[in-house]
Design goal:
This protein has four helices and no strands. It is an all-alpha fold. It is elongated, with a radius of gyration of 17 Å.
């Protein structure tokens, strides 16, 4: 499975996937703040509890997005932040599955898979380059 040959290119791809991942998550949490009914299951009305929950979601995703975007291209940050973002999307897919919402399951699952593939490729590219040097 040889996709990307240089560690530098792998880092760029992983940074891009991670940035898209956190921006999507941040976008949904901000959408929950601005229009809670947009992210709630059909036939559910926004409540004070759902508004507070949206605030908690934004309190986590907005700083993650800011820190991720500020550290793009730095492998020492991309690996842990990419892993965290991928794990969050995987858990979001679980929430979608619990809600029986195909869109809220497939979307996060696809992002998580792309994230973990990019991370795997980055680690592998780094290992291959160190084997060539060493």
């Amino acid at each position: 499975m040889n996709w990307i040959y240089s560690e530098r290119t792998a880092l760029r791809v992983t940074s891009l996937v991670t940035a898209l991942n956190v921006l999507v998550a941040c976008g949904f949490s901000v959408a929950g703040l601005l229009s809670p009914s947009a992210i709630l299951p059909p036939s559910t009305s926004p409540t004070t509890a759902s508004e507070i929950f949206a605030m908690y979601a934004a309190a986590r995703t907005v700083p993650l997005a800011i820190i991720t975007l500020a550290t793009l291209g730095r492998q020492s940050w991309t690996l842990p932040l990419g892993t965290l973002a991928g794990a969050a999307q995987l858990l979001d897919a679980g929430v979608g599955l619990f809600q029986h919402d195909v869109g809220k399951t497939i979307g996060p699952l696809l992002i998580a898979v792309l994230q973990f593939l990019a991370l795997f490729n980055l680690v592998r590219a780094g290992n291959e380059e160190s084997d060539l040097r060493g």
